[in-house]
Specification:
Number of strands: 12
Helix content: 40-55%
Radius of gyration: 32 Å
Largest sheet: 3 strands, parallel
Shape: elongated
Number of helices: 21
Distance between the termini: 85 Å
Oligomer: single chain
């Protein structure tokens, strides 16, 4: 059985992405779970950039990872580690494994291995390295190394099972006979993933390795390296994969999969974090909407789930709407303002000069919004000189132009005649409805279209108050002229 880190040890967890693309939502979920574990148990969250694949690693991808984590608020506690900078240590550890007799040099060429692999296929057998280089004499190995003959270093797999207690899956065991003598160092002296990861995790004093369950097959190999290096094993936790609604592994065919995409689709980080947390973890009961502070408090390994998580974009949008409705205006305002300005609705000075009114508008609009873009769309009638009338709204509530014009003319007269406060405005419109012998909705709905061009908006009296007398009466004049 594996030995886990002492309970008295400060938990140290890491997120280790490769800078070969954007920060995928699956990677962000892994980072979040590591971060929550570290924060809940008073631990340390580390970031390691696994940039050993120089051909595919880019500065742009690295920046995207940093930007995504910073937008989510998943800040790391120590200096970023770059795996590519640790080549000498990786090579020293490979030599230590050779010296300990846990690994050996293999001089078989790629062509020779390919030929043996084809022979195994022809016999319908799984290919497994036959250890012929492990049977070379020490003198023969020394001679071939001295001659500069290319070779790799292979880890010698055991005959016994390799097992561990996983925080998510409980006991996992791999038969030793199924583990091949795997390469740990290439012929050019660069490390294979399993060696580099273990070497770095030991150096970073990582105590909990939490990652996707697509890494389960790597874990027995890494355990063998830990043991051969005489290092204490971390605790392993393998998180379920994330699938789309079709039950297949999440990919671009399911829509946006980069964290940065959602940032630009009008989502706020608190909602994204809340949604990601529920992809493979449950706080218990039916609880869904949580702040980051609540997630830290509630997080436990008992809530980690084994079954694949389902990424539902509609659920994410709903979650974002829930968070938009409850976050403070201090947090909401700086997230919406750049979008308002980018849409050309107002400039910074206008919003600063009318800040109290602007904050009241945001408070009104966010209740019916699911994204920041929704708020911007709803805000258009309160800023624009002219508005467009939704065709469905016109067809439904102005289907008789003459009747609609009559109602709006009477509405304008009723609103203009009295003071501009919510009680007076409501009294004026309900009195108008009674006078005309119609339900109040017959007045409110044509008015809503005149004011916003839409069928849905905040409450009519709240909207009139925020819009103000001048703009509201101007909207009515424009609508009446359009219907004439």
């Amino acid at each position: 059985m594996m030995t886990v880190s002492s309970a008295a040890t400060t938990p140290r967890l890491r997120f280790a992405p490769s800078p070969t693309g954007y920060l995928h939502v699956g990677g962000a979920r892994t980072a979040l779970f590591n971060w929550l574990y570290a924060k809940h148990f008073g631990g340390v969250f580390l970031l390691r950039i696994e940039d050993t694949d120089k051909a595919r690693s880019t500065d742009e991808s690295e920046r995207a990872i940093f930007n995504g984590l910073e937008w989510l608020g998943l800040n790391w506690d120590e200096e970023v580690v770059h795996q590519g900078a640790n080549l000498e240590r990786h090579q020293r550890d490979a030599q230590a494994l050779l010296d300990a007799g846990a690994a050996y040099r293999c001089f078989c060429t790629a062509a020779e291995l390919d030929e043996r692999r084809k022979e195994a296929d022809s016999r319908k057998e799984a290919f497994k390295y036959d250890r012929r280089c492990d049977r070379l004499s020490a003198d023969e190995v020394e001679r071939r190394v001295a001659a500069g003959e290319p070779h790799v270093i292979r880890m010698r797999a055991p005959d016994t099972d390799v097992e561990w207690n996983d925080l998510v899956h409980d006991r996992i065991a791999f038969p030793g006979k199924d583990i091949d003598d795997f390469v740990i160092l290439r012929s050019d002296g660069t490390p294979i993933y399993n060696l580099a990861v273990v070497s770095d995790d030991i150096a970073m004093r990582v105590t909990v390795v939490m990652r996707g369950d697509d890494h389960i097959s790597n874990t027995p190999k890494q355990i063998l390296i830990y043991r051969a290096l005489g290092a204490e094993l971390p605790t392993f936790a393998h998180l379920p994969m994330i699938h789309g609604l079709d039950g297949k592994k999440l990919s671009k065919r399911h829509g946006a999969t980069a964290v940065g995409d959602y940032q630009h689709l009008g989502l706020i980080p608190g909602a994204m974090l809340n949604f990601l947390a529920l992809l493979g973890w449950s706080p218990g009961g039916d609880r869904e909407v949580m702040t980051m502070e609540e997630m830290i408090e509630l997080f436990s390994v008992d809530g980690l789930q084994r079954k694949a998580a389902i990424f539902d974009p509609k659920k994410l949008e709903w979650m974002n709407g829930q968070h938009l409705s409850v976050i403070s205006l201090e947090e909401l305002e700086p997230r919406v303002t750049p979008a308002i300005i980018a849409a050309g609705l107002a400039d910074v000075k206008t919003l600063e000069d009318r800040r109290e009114w602007y904050r009241s508008l945001l408070d009104l609009l966010r209740v019916r919004a699911r994204t920041i873009d929704d708020i911007v769309r709803q805000a258009i009638p309160y800023f624009a000189d002219q508005i467009e009338y939704d065709a469905d709204a016109v067809a439904k509530y102005w289907k008789d132009p003459s009747e609609a014009r009559s109602i709006l003319s009477a509405t304008k007269d009723a609103l203009a005649a009295g003071p501009w406060d919510s009680i007076s405005l409501e009294s004026a419109l309900r009195t108008l409805a009674d006078t005309r012998g119609v339900a109040a909705g017959k007045i409110f709905q044509p008015l809503r279209v005149a004011l916003t061009g839409l069928t849905v908006s905040p409450g009519i009296f709240e909207m009139l108050m925020i819009m103000g007398r001048d703009l509201a009466l101007h909207r009515l004049d424009t609508a009446i002229a359009k219907l004439a």
